[in-house]
Amino acid sequence: MSDPVSDKRAGFRQMRPSRDVSHLLNVMAALRDRQAGCPWDVEQDFASIAPYTIEEAHEVADAIARGDMVDLCEELGDLLLQVVFHAQMGAEAGFFEFGDVVEAITSKLIRRHPHVFGDGQAANPAEVGEVWARIKAEEKAEKLRKKVEMGIPAPSPSLLDGVPPSLPALTKALKLQQKASKVGFDWNDPRAVLAKFREEIQELEDAFDKKDASAMKDEMGDMLFVIANLARHADIDPESALEGTNAKFRRRFGHIEARARAEGRSLDDMSLEEMDALWDEAKALEKGC
């Protein structure tokens, strides 16, 4: 008498890598098989997988920043896996399938580019942005209408709607500020933002003096929010700016580690002054001094 689990796994063993996305869908379905699949994959749900989806998107961005096309190819595959994983869980629950995801984004792209797929006109990126925003607003209104027809309670509309809660905090701050700016809730002069930044630094210092942990956290958040605002006024992406500094820190700290290894020493045995000197040396090397 045949064993259903053994029979399934025998079929799974016939699966091979392929450029055809249908094979990837079959592999994911096999991993999620309740009888013969992977126990870890089977126990996952949308919420447990969401952090991995965000992480993979960041790893794609990192590969792009490093200009590493080998890594980018691999990371894009990992990101695609996240889409396939969510689609498989959606299909199992009867919500949607991978084909529905593909059709939805294809439909959206065609609908939001009437200047390419229709009779609309958009001669430059600014006009494209205007068309995109108008159609997006129409889609939002239609989606709300459908939800009302289905009896789904409609939340009170807000200008700040549409900023995903899962965004990195600095990016979220930037998008909230951009939306508020559309109705004039904004500073007209970047120097006013600088003045606000100095005010927030003083308030943070006061919180430190009082040793008030709750106030320190609150004021630190205010200061970071103002930094995001200042970056926006300077037309700088704060996430990109901070990531550049993170990379710079890695390089310079790596120089300290390399010099310590060359001298047969441990960082634990180095004084702060010695490490600072090596840091300055790394800065000088970067500047070609």
Describe the SSE topology.
Layout: H1 4-12, H2 21-31, H3 39-43, H4 46-66, H5 69-93, H6 98-111, H7 114-117, H8 125-149, H9 169-181, H10 190-210, H11 213-233, H12 238-262, H13 272-287
Helix pairs in contact: 2-5, 4-5, 9-11, 10-11, 12-13
Main traits of this protein?
Helix Hairpins; single chain; 289 residues; mainly alpha
Task: Describe the 3D structure.
- The chain has three domains: 4-149, Helix Hairpins (Orthogonal Bundle); 169-236, Orthogonal Bundle (Helix Hairpins); 240-287.
- Helix content is 73%, strand content 0%.
- The chain has 13 helices and no strands.
- The protein has helices at 4-12, 21-31, 39-43, 46-66, 69-93, 98-111, 114-117, 125-149, 169-181, 190-210, 213-233, 238-262, 272-287.
- Helix 4 runs antiparallel to helix 5 (69-93) and helix 9 crosses helix 11 (213-233).
- It is extended.
- The mean pLDDT is 91.
